[in-house]
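> example.struct
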């Protein structure tokens, strides 16, 4: 609740207005029983009916009921605006935080679970907040105002009601304390279900190709069964609160009626006064019933908020430096770098390298040797455990990540296309690029031939399923051709492209790589024979380095890798 209050504080004006409207509405509703009680007293005596006074009371009651309806309507608008504004702020904060979280966090979290936290869980928070604003505040005001009015009529009956009230509190607290963990478990299982659904839908082709449908259905059924059981338990136990408090309130109401009846017989209370006290006793106990029903939603909302705040409170990447990396030429020095994803399992140790500007560096080695990790460290997707990396003599940890990453152009094996036009996808790194520049970049990447065949050319809206894997990779290459950064990283950049197009792309790359420091990660060693220097990695270390011909003459690990691709020798 304290964490939620930080967001509620941004809507102080609406919050105060909600409180004022709550107070006005409650006072009107509590004044109406007084008018009813006085009206009853006007007709209680034999042959003593004041029709004129009764008429006035009825007119006033109707006016107050109308006013109460209007204020309640306005209160609903205020609470809705405040609630959904708060949830909007929480979602925006979560998205902003995701942009600042290290890749290590995103790697260990399921995509579906994160989506569930930001979308589904925040929806649950909004439902709980809305009920809280509409019923919780009104309930508190009603309780306080009712006690005041009851004290004016009968201190003894008021004391009786107040003394019996803690029973409702204890019943509610006993049930609510157990349901929080149940709702937390429900939210966690819901996140697992969302993650599995996202996996199965996103990998539908693989699922069908490997006949995984039945096992996928079994996994989903198992999670679905656990979610059903967790939801049933949480809702069942939380639903006990309302009938339990109603039973307690029924006892309190009966006690007030019995005590009031004896007071009438003794002449200490009128019939109208008892009707007012009974109405107030009901009004006084109603908030406890309402609050107990709200507790169910609040427990669910708070458990969901807890999951959202886990994301918001996750440590962000180390603070950005104000200095920018400018005028990059591409000289690089890597000194004694150590890195491991898991502290107990070292991956890269004592890694050192010097690269002159304009050099083409190929990185090769078996799967898991640290090639992609090396690229991640250059881009600061991960931070080194020990050691230093310099670009043109500037420590990359002394400049902003954005300026560092703007100095590199990346084409990865994994393509990413956003749901937008072809133009927006190509101009992702340069939104201000002209159509002429975009078309030129697409032609250089040999992507314009298929772009022209699209229904609306550059204005065609595409998504991840609209194009083939090769076409998506050509668009990613077009992005780099458009930005023309001072340094390049090509990680299996032509893995999904046919051989004929690949030859054309290689020619385009030759042009863009000219004079630029380039790191090429490749499994097909035939594509990196022209590199100025080839780094052969194994188990996080550089075990060989040199030109293609030099490494073949050595007859070491590189030559084994190279010839195995042609001779079918298993290494």
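> example.seq
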């Amino acid at each position: 609740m304290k964490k939620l209050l930080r967001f509620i504080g941004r809507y102080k004006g609406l919050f105060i207005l909600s409180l004022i409207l709550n107070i006005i509405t409650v006072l009107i509703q509590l004044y109406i029983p007084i008018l009813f009680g006085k009206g009853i007293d006007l007709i209680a005596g034999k042959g003593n009916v004041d029709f004129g006074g009764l008429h006035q009371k009825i007119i006033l009651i109707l006016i107050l009921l109308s006013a109460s309806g209007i204020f309640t309507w306005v209160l609903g608008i205020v609470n809705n605006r405040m609630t959904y504004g708060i949830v909007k702020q929480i979602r925006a904060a979560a998205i902003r935080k995701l942009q600042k979280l290290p890749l290590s966090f995103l790697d260990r979290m399921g995509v579906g679970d994160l989506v569930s936290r930001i979308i589904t869980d925040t929806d649950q928070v909004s439902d709980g907040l809305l009920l809280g604003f509409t019923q919780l505040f009104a309930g508190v005001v009603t309780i306080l105002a009712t006690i005041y009015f009851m004290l004016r009529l009968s201190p003894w009956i008021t004391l009786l009601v107040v003394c019996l009230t803690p029973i409702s509190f204890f019943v509610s607290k006993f049930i609510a304390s157990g349901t929080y963990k149940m709702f937390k478990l429900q939210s966690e299982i819901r996140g697992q279900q969302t993650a599995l659904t996202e996996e199965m839908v996103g990998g539908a082709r693989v699922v069908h190709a490997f006949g995984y449908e039945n096992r996928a259905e079994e996994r989903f059924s198992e999670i679905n069964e656990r979610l059903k059981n967790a939801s049933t338990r949480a809702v069942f136990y939380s639903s006990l609160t309302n009938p339990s408090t109603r039973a307690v309130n029924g006892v309190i109401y009966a006690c007030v009626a019995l005590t009031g009846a004896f007071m009438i017989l003794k002449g200490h209370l009128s019939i109208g006064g008892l009707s007012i006290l009974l109405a107030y006793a009901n009004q006084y106990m109603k908030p406890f019933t309402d609050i107990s029903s709200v507790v169910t939603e609040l427990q669910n909302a708070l458990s969901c908020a807890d999951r959202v705040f886990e994301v918001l409170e996750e440590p962000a990447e180390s603070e950005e430096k104000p200095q920018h990396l400018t005028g990059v030429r591409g000289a690089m020095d890597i000194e004694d770098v150590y890195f491991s994803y898991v502290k107990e399992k070292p991956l890269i140790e004592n890694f050192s390298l010097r690269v002159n500007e304009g050099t083409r560096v190929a990185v090769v080695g078996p799967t898991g040797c640290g090639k992609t990790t090396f690229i991640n460290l250059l881009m600061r997707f991960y931070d080194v455990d020990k050691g230093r990396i310099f670009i043109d003599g500037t420590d990359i940890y002394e400049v902003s990540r954005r300026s560092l990453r703007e100095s590199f152009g990346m084409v990865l094996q994994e393509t990413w296309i956003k749901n937008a036009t072809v133009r927006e996808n190509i101009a992702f790194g340069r939104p201000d690029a002209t159509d002429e520049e975009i078309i030129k970049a697409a032609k250089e990447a040999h992507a314009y031939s298929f772009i022209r065949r699209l229904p609306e050319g550059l204005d065609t809206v595409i998504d991840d399923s609209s194009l083939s894997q090769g076409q998506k990779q050509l668009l990613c290459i077009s992005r780099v051709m458009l930005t023309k950064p001072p340094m390049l990283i090509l990680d299996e950049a032509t893995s999904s492209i046919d051989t004929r197009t690949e030859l054309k792309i290689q020619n385009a790359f030759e042009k863009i790589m000219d004079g630029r420091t380039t790191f090429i990660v490749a499994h097909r060693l035939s594509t990196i024979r022209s590199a100025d220097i080839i780094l052969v990695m194994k188990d996080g270390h550089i075990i060989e380095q040199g030109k293609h011909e030099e490494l073949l003459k050595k007859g070491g690990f590189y030559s084994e890798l190279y010839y195995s691709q042609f001779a079918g020798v298993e290494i």
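> remarks
The radius of gyration is 35 Å.
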